[in-house]
């Protein structure tokens, strides 16, 4: 472990204070809160980059510090996360998992006073901020600091698109390259389920995830923890049915949706998932739609998709959506992934 102790006092001007002051100035000039947040965040990052040569050490003890307020807003507000293009990652284990893919995406690392910078982060050159237990509890939202010894402020992945937003517009250019498999989530509100599904899609080499309205934010703390780094590797798009239909038409993709056989909402026939069905789809681009456990598929999904269920015996009609999704994602995974599994066996 590389031992790094906090300095006795903070520097006269921190990146967070600089960003807060600039944000206020921008608002006085009439910019929207969204644009002000983006401009302030970018300016703070530029300031920090120009002032550090290696890790820049700071110390924050007060919960009223602007950096603390910024981090709390990142944890609580999806709109603020998207306007700043930043996210908050709580806990050392998730941070180390993310660092395998995007070490440069970390803007700032918050460590509990008295702890060392882990060896795995020895190449990190950003700001290291030592904080009190009170600050760590405030930022993490936890009552104890036992499992929250570190928090990271990270840049949102470049391959995330919020279609129609002020920041992203309608541009999907360069996000997908002839996709063969896209997972579509229809109203998945549980962050643990959503994160697990993103992780499974990444594990089975699907090309991306499309989030329809009413889905929870994929950069919610619990969703990030469940995804185990997959959110930084897989293209994720947030849009509506019109956007999905345009994507489907552009790439000539077939639409299928997982649906329990005993569900009364279906007015059409339901196929059973099988190896024969999966084999028949190997060369066909496919969108797989999964609905929420509570409400199931939306009316739009039921109308637009061919329905398929997982055959089961016993008294249960359905599975948890993340469990069912894992089965669908494995069975319907892309042809090159199937080929590699066959060659290994």
Automatic annotation (TrEMBL):
Protein name per UniProt: tRNA/rRNA methyltransferase SpoU type domain-containing protein
Gene Ontology molecular-function annotations: RNA binding; RNA methyltransferase activity
Classification of source organism: Eukaryota, Viridiplantae, Streptophyta, Embryophyta, Tracheophyta
GO BP annotations, alphabetical order: methylation; RNA processing
Keywords from the UniProt entry: Methyltransferase, Transferase
Organism listed in the record: Paspalum notatum var. saurae
PANTHER family, sorted: RRNA METHYLTRANSFERASE 3, RRNA METHYLTRANSFERASE 3, MITOCHONDRIAL
tRNA/rRNA methyltransferase SpoU type domain sequence ranges: 182-330
InterPro entries linked to this entry: Alpha/beta_knot_MTases, Ribosomal_eL30-like_sf, rRNA_Methyltransferase, SpoU_MeTrfase, tRNA_m1G_MTases_N
């Amino acid at each position: 472990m590389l031992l790094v102790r906090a300095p006795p006092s903070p520097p006269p001007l921190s990146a967070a204070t600089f960003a807060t002051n600039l944000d206020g100035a921008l608002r006085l000039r009439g910019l929207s809160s969204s644009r002000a947040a983006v401009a302030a965040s970018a300016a703070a990052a530029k300031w920090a980059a120009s002032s550090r040569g290696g890790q820049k050490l700071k110390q924050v003890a007060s919960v009223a510090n602007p950096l603390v307020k910024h981090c709390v807003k990142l944890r609580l507000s999806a709109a603020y996360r998207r306007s700043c293009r930043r996210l908050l990652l709580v806990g050392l284990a998730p941070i180390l998992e993310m660092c395998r893919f995007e070490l440069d995406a970390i803007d700032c690392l918050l460590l509990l006073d008295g702890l060392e910078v882990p060896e795995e982060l020895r190449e990190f050159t950003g700001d290291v901020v030592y904080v009190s237990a009170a600050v760590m509890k405030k930022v993490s939202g936890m009552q104890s600091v036992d499992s929250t010894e570190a928090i990271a402020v990270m840049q949102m992945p470049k391959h995330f698109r919020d279609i129609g937003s002020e920041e992203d517009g309608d541009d999907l250019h360069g996000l997908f390259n002839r996709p063969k498999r896209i997972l579509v989530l229809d109203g998945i509100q549980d962050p643990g389920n959503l994160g697990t599904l993103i992780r499974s899609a990444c594990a089975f080499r699907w090309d991306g995830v499309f989030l329809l309205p009413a889905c929870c934010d994929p950069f919610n703390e619990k969703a990030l923890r469940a995804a185990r780094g997959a959110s930084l590797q897989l293209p994720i798009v947030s849009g509506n049915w019109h956007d999905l239909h345009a994507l489907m038409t552009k790439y000539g993709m077939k639409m299928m949706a997982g649906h329990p056989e005993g569900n009364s909402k279906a007015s059409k026939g339901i196929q059973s998932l099988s190896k024969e069905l999966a084999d028949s789809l190997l060369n066909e681009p496919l969108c797989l739609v999964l609905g929420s456990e509570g409400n199931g598929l939306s009316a739009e999904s039921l109308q637009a998709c061919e329905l398929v269920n997982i055959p089961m015996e016993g008294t249960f009609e359905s599975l948890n959506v993340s469990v069912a999704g894992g089965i669908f994602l494995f069975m319907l995974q892309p042809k090159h992934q199937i080929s590699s599994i066959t060659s290994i066996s």
